[in-house]
Design goal:
Blueprint lengths: L8 E7 L21 H13 L4 E6 L7 H9 L5 H14 L3 E5 L5 H8 L4 E3 L22 H13 L4 E7 L5 H18 L2 E8 L11 H13 L14 E2 L13 H4 L9 E2 L16 H6 L9 E6 L17
Parallel strand pairs: 1-2, 2-3, 3-4, 4-5, 5-6, 6-9
Antiparallel strand pairs: 7-8
Helix pairs in contact: 5-6
């Protein structure tokens, strides 16, 4: 009999205000959005009641560029947004919950500040293609691959356990997919800090601003499994992802059917916030991943997931997403 492990995760969408204008994003808003301290405390209490062990702090990139957000931060005693994220992580640690932050491109200094209060951090490379800066990433300066690679490298210099990955199906070529994986492989070879690399395929789905990722995931979980933990009569297909690179399992694959491919029985479960891919965008081939020199180092996981429910090494109460 094989042991299957998971870690219960909760997602806190601390701010959806973002300076970027990515053409595929369903998360960001141009409005001033940031959860006040009392709401952060409320959500963390909720996570603790649900026995969550990990917290994903998810935000837009540099929300403080919005004057109203900056004013609220100052009112709460914070000089910048990173300070507020540090405060939220401290509140999570008080409850025995390990924070993982994914808040965009950061300086060496800000990464070091967060290192003191996080178990790990993350930033999707998305793509190494500069060409996309003229298309889907136009108007999004921090989506330039050089800036994102600089942050990932700085995390390596600081020895921060880190998650990264690529987006698939946003206009890149297969050669550009490989180029992106090779860029991450090179940083992993030098610093050894990448604990997970996500292959996230883009699936168009409705905007969900105003809804919490954790609530979407919880509703999907209850529909899939029922309130008593058993399968629901109206169960949708469950999208399951493992580190067995790089293709998504077929829709309808169950946990029991797919368990043979997981990394030592540790699975990632993505709860969809939008319609499943039909068909999914073409994922990098196994050859492409191997060509990028990703073996299976002890600390690294390569996972495939949908953009509607980004996987981490957990079956999550609030499925993780990536800004």
């Amino acid at each position: 009999m094989r042991r299957v492990t998971f870690s219960r995760n909760y997602t806190l969408s601390l701010s959806r205000t973002c300076q970027c204008y990515c053409k595929y994003c369903a998360f960001a808003t141009r409005q001033a959005h940031i959860h006040p301290p009392e709401e952060v405390e409320r959500q963390l209490d909720r996570a603790e009641r649900r026995n969550a062990k990990e917290l994903l702090v998810l935000t837009g990139e540099r929300p403080e560029v919005n004057p109203e957000v900056a004013a609220r931060l100052a009112e709460w005693g914070h000089d910048d947004f990173t300070s507020y994220v540090v405060w939220a992580c401290e509140r999570a640690l008080e409850r025995g919950i390990l924070p993982h932050t994914n808040i965009g491109v950061l300086s060496h200094e800000d990464l070091a500040r967060l290192r003191e209060v996080t178990a790990s951090q993350g930033l999707m490379l998305e793509s190494a293609s500069e060409r996309l800066m003229d298309t889907v990433h136009a108007g999004s300066p921090t989506k330039h691959p050089a800036k994102r690679l600089a942050t990932i490298e700085a995390a390596g210099e600081l020895r921060i356990p880190f998650t990264s990955g690529i987006l698939v199906g946003i206009g890149e070529t297969q050669d550009e997919q490989v180029e992106s994986l090779e860029a991450l492989a090179a940083l992993q070879a030098e610093y050894g800090h990448l604990q997970e690399v996500i292959l996230q395929n883009f699936v168009p789905h409705p905007r969900y601003y105003g809804e919490e990722v954790a609530d979407i995931a919880d509703a999907a979980s209850r529909q899939r499994w029922g309130s008593d933990g058993g399968p629901s009569a109206e169960s949708p297909n469950c999208q399951l992802s493992s580190d067995e690179p790089p293709s998504l399992l077929q829709r309808g694959t169950t946990l029991g059917e797919g368990v043979g491919g997981g990394p030592d029985g540790d699975w990632q479960l993505g709860s969809p916030a939008g319609p499943p891919p039909s068909p999914p965008p073409q994922m990098p081939s196994t050859f492409a991943v191997r060509r990028a020199r990703f073996g299976r180092p002890a600390s690294a996981v390569v996972s495939a997931t949908t953009s509607a429910g980004v996987s981490r090494s957990s079956a999550s109460e609030g499925s993780s997403s990536t800004a």
